[in-house]
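Annotated sample (chain length 507).
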Amino acid sequence: MPTTKNLPRSIDAWLKQLDEVRLPIAGHHHEAIRRVLLDSRRSLRDIAERMQDSPAVALAVLREANRNTGGLSEPAESLEMALNRLGLKRAETLLGQMTVLDEAQIPLALCQLQLISLHASQQANGLFAGRLARLWQEIHWGSLLFLAPLWPLAASQPELFEAWERRVLGRGEPAGKVERELLGVSLNALCLALARHWRLPEWIVQGYRLLVEDRRLLVKALHIARDNEHTLHQQQVLDEDSNLRRWLTQPGNSILLANGLALSSHHNWSCQHHLRWQRLAGLYLQTELPDLQQLIHQQAALSARQHAQPGLWHPAEALLWPWEACRLKDLQAPAAPKINTQLDLWKQHCAQLLAQPSPFANVLQLTDSACQALQAGGMQRVLVLLADRTHSRLMAQQVAGLPDAAAQLRLDPTQSQVLRRLLAEPGQLRLSPANLAQVSALLPGSLKALFNGEHLILRSLASNGRVVMLLVADQGGGDIGATPLQIFGKTVQCIERALATFARRGA
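Output written by the structure step:
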């Protein structure tokens, strides 16, 4: 644990020290941005987009632009606006004053934090910017710079970030207690003070103000978000609290949500902390949790392709791990060894499904691997049905946990509105007590006879734009928890990839 003897112990003292820190920039980023600034053919938007590869430069430009206003105008909300205020000559001078280092000399903690910020920016762009198109610049730059108050701390005291990560994420110690020991102050309170002092975009200040001064509002929203399976009840509760409903519709919340998702997934995709942010984002977007999780995973993969760097951890790497695996498990408090052979087996089957070229000689082998992956992922009863070319018949191909007669099952989709809809396009239907009475009447009797219970998942999968497979699975008819649902979603993604690879095997 680092010594805190000579470190500041108050907000004001930390402000003074951190305000004087000059964030370093890698030499290749410095040269690339210098060339863009000198290129007269580039628009301000082109220059701003190029600067985002180096968050330290983006922060320096925004701080300088907002410092020069003398408090007479609103803070610049985007880098394009900041460049317009400063002018390219001043931006070039500012770039020349920055500390340039070899990438290996930049503190690892700073690089890791900035990678989390880049990941948060991708999440914000993918989840929110399309819905709030007119505000995409505010969403983009606000999400990228939300964690900026932490960057000078990571640059000047990298051991503090490492200690915080080890104790809070690895060992599960209370964040407030650890921060008081290491810093003498709350980290969120320090970030709020710095955001105000630097005149960062108002949405960033609003986010930290919520975390520090108005946590009750956030807690109420998180409590409502937990009931994500009953959207009507959620809406009724929100209708009764107009203040909370108004807050939940504010576009500025998008950058807090994106950073909450990025920072919590940095630890573990399946931890409760990350699930809380997912539920809150689902409530904000009015999106079902499984659909939202798929979007979040897609954005993480896109971020990894664009921003991953050797020696740094990107959460997308863990998407191929067993779901309960944790990057920091070796730092957690000692516990009895626990081996989950089912998850190891699930990982093996998913790896086989994702292999290229396709290891399957025929469809029977592929569906067998798919069925076993679903079982290893926690589904107790599984039925894999194949559709014929005209979608006039569904035939059982694989069964698990069901009577032998299930292997002979044949279904006529024309007799079921639910089956027709699932065959029309890829989709998922989840049966629960909330919709059982309505949906069950639309399912074939022979299928209902196999899956007695109140909880069931039906998922159709496509290949080359046409639905070819229907998966029916449950956990013995009982409630299907959030983690098994996540594993089911990940397994389906692997099966879809396997179908696509298998279809191209002769090309």
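Annotation: Confidence is low (pLDDT under 50) at residues 330-339.
Annotation: The first helix runs from residue 11 to 19.
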